TrEMBL record:
<dbReference type="Pfam" id="PF01904">
    <property type="entry name" value="DUF72"/>
</dbReference>
<protein>
    <recommendedName>
        <fullName>DUF72 domain-containing protein</fullName>
    </recommendedName>
</protein>
<dbReference type="InterPro" id="IPR036520">
    <property type="entry name" value="UPF0759_sf"/>
</dbReference>
<dbReference type="InterPro" id="IPR002763">
    <property type="entry name" value="DUF72"/>
</dbReference>
């Protein structure tokens, strides 16, 4: 993902901001649980982007990917509305615990800009529904020039969204974040309709990692900079998620991107190893052989 890319990431202050006070208020409504629901994945599974990830001779990329990760941020649906039969095939190929988090198409968010989109939205939803229990949160990513002047369009879209389907929204125009009143109106809208506020951690847009949750879901799109600091940044996220877990967070959806996507699985493996240790999880560590040591713990080769 090129969004937020910079030429000199070493000059960026990647310190995560303090948790927004309203996040603690939102999470206080929920009971703390011992182990949050973690879904961690990449943005795509095709071999061209994840070069070197698949063993030689791999016949089905999704089938292999879904044994390494428990989720996918399905960016492919942004570019086309796949037929229902395709989602059925994807569902059949993946394990029971696997989840797809599909992006609504650019026709909705970028071309029509939420105007007159009822028919096409319903078409996407109908096709997504063929994933059945493997359908995760659907997310809407708005164009960077879709600013607060379009608030009413977004409000109407959210109000008309089916209440039974989880939705997350990502806004990119800087005015959503720079004006305190605008940001408050936006996040209050999401909270009122139980819509997740997407957090984007990328080098060139530090305003988008505002740490304001609007429901019991941390939907995080992490964009590495192909720089050694990428790993330190993931360490910081482990600590932040622990803070939120202690405050009542129950659902973590964490998707790892890279400007050069070939490194995404490497970052993901590092992150999964960390959260396994911190939260007592047993998520598969991608492309790692594991052996039990004398303490029954997993050691990486």
């Amino acid at each position: 993902m090129k969004f937020g890319q910079v030429d000199t990431p070493e000059n960026i202050d990647f310190t995560l901001p303090k948790t927004h006070p309203e996040t603690f208020r939102v999470l206080s409504k929920y009971d703390t649980i011992e182990t949050p629901n973690f879904f961690v994945g990449c943005a795509k599974w095709n071999k061209a982007d994840l070069k070197g990830f698949y063993p030689r001779g791999t016949k089905d990329e999704l089938e292999y990917y879904s044994k390494q990760f428990n989720s996918i941020e399905l960016n492919a649906t942004f570019y086309r509305n796949f037929p229902a039969s395709q989602f059925e095939k994807w569902k059949e190929k993946t394990p029971n615990n696997f989840r797809f988090f599909p992006k609504l198409g650019q026709e909705i968010s970028h071309w029509k800009r939420l105007k007159g989109v009822e028919e096409v939205v319903n078409s996407y939803i109908d096709n997504f529904s063929n994933l059945e229990e493997k359908l995760g949160t659907i997310f809407l990513q708005l164009h960077a020039n879709f600013g607060p002047k379009n608030f009413e369009l977004l409000e109407n879209f959210i109000k008309s969204w089916p209440k039974t389907l989880p939705l997350a929204v990502e806004v990119r125009h800087k005015d959503w974040f720079e004006d305190k009143n605008v940001f408050t109106d936006f996040t209050n809208l999401l909270e009122a309709y139980n819509v997740a506020n997407v957090l984007v951690d990328t080098a060139g847009r530090r305003d988008m990692v505002h740490n304001r949750l609007t429901n019991n879901e941390a939907f995080i799109r992490y964009v590495g900079a192909n720089h050694p600091t990428d790993y330190d940044r993931l360490d910081d996220w482990v600590l932040k998620l622990k803070e939120w877990k202690n405050a009542g967070l129950q659902n973590v959806h964490f998707f790892i991107h890279q400007n050069l996507e070939v490194e995404s699985p490497l970052l993901a493996a590092y992150f999964i190893k960390k959260i396994n240790a911190e939260f007592g999880l047993k998520l598969t560590i991608p492309n790692q052989k594991d052996e039990s040591n004398n303490n029954g713990q997993i050691s990486l080769l």
